[in-house]
């Protein structure tokens, strides 16, 4: 059976070499006589796996020493609550940028804990652009500013990091973390569910500046208190051990590839090839302003939506799967995260050109 090019928005493809290594090690991890999934999270072997993964992630992202890296569970959706619980620090308000479906969810969850000031919204343009720095109306006394650098559903990515004049910036990087280098010091907190660009579902990465920890709102569950996890090296309770191990293999794969500069160059080429193909045709269209187009999630429509089903069926027959757009947006969406090989995008654009020639 041939492996397919899976364009799913998440859970998404993993690098084939990572899966092969996991396969090699599945019955006996490096002479331990055990699968990693069978190991105690307190044992010497597993602790070395966990520490190596954290150190490789720190190296890839050049995480400064005054930041904690947490390996949690509960998905990015749990962070929608954990962020206000931990970062309000006695304040009653936070700024949120409303740029798509995921920021909307983050906003509605935050409203359970504080006054939300929507500091910018692009809803009137159907979330097809990123707001400019000049549009941001930050509130006096906001405890932090939250935004979604890459909106996975709409395919909109900020071309810049907002300047918040010293207010901690919080970023939901679920669908963009590790796609390119970032300057972690610009952020107070970064979080990401792993299943887009990091590893399997079940693991959530949080990178947080130490001085923001330790003032959770009253009633914060222990499991939602970042400081508890930081003080216990993410082992307050049993972490998602196997997902953490697989993420570690992905970090090694990225390092072998040359790190995030090398990954960024590949991702830029993949995105350009796909957007150029869409723009060169009257048959395909992408609604997002060119400067805010996502490198990771590329939504596109066919000139005749009646052909959508045929497109999906024939794509699947050509081993190009999960291209259906999100139900809220329609059309198609190709998610081309780190693990999607360039050959996958080349195969997709070849299929698109051929489909247009026959049906356009
Ligand atoms: C997928 C996604 C989420 C939700 O992640 P879960 O891990 O399923 O909770 C949140 N934000 C963004 C930007 C996403 O892409």
Overall spatial form: globular
Largest sheet: 7 strands, mixed
Number of domains: 2
Mind telling me which CATH architecture of the largest domain this is? 3-Layer(aba) Sandwich
Q: How much strand?
A: 15-25%
Q: End-to-end span in angstroms?
A: 32 Å
Backbone CA Rg: 21 Å
Mean pLDDT, to the nearest integer, reads 97
- Tell me the name of the CATH homologous superfamily of the largest domain: Type I PLP-dependent aspartate aminotransferase-like (Major domain)
Reading the helices and strands in chain order gives: EHHEHEHEEEEEEEHHHEEHEEH
List the ions, cofactors and other small molecules found in this model. pyridoxal-5'-phosphate
Structural class: alpha/beta
Low-confidence stretches: none
Strand adjacency order, main sheet: 2-10-9-8-5-3-4
Helical coverage, percent range: 25-40%
**Strand tally:** 14
**What is the name of the CATH class of the largest domain?**
Alpha Beta
Tally of contiguous helical segments: 9
- The CATH topology name of the largest domain reads Aspartate Aminotransferase, domain 2
What does this protein structure show overall?
With 360 residues, this protein is of the alpha/beta class. It has two domains: 240 residues, 3-Layer(aba) Sandwich (Aspartate Aminotransferase, domain 2), CATH 3.40.640; 102 residues, Aspartate Aminotransferase, domain 1 (Alpha-Beta Complex), CATH 3.90.1150. Helix content is 34%, strand content 16%. It has nine helices and 14 strands. Strands 2-10-9-8-5-3-4 form a seven-stranded mixed β-sheet. Helix 3 packs across helix 4. The radius of gyration is 21 Å and the shape is globular. It starts with a strand and ends with a helix. The mean pLDDT is 97. The chain binds pyridoxal-5'-phosphate. Pyridoxal-5'-phosphate binds next to helix 3.
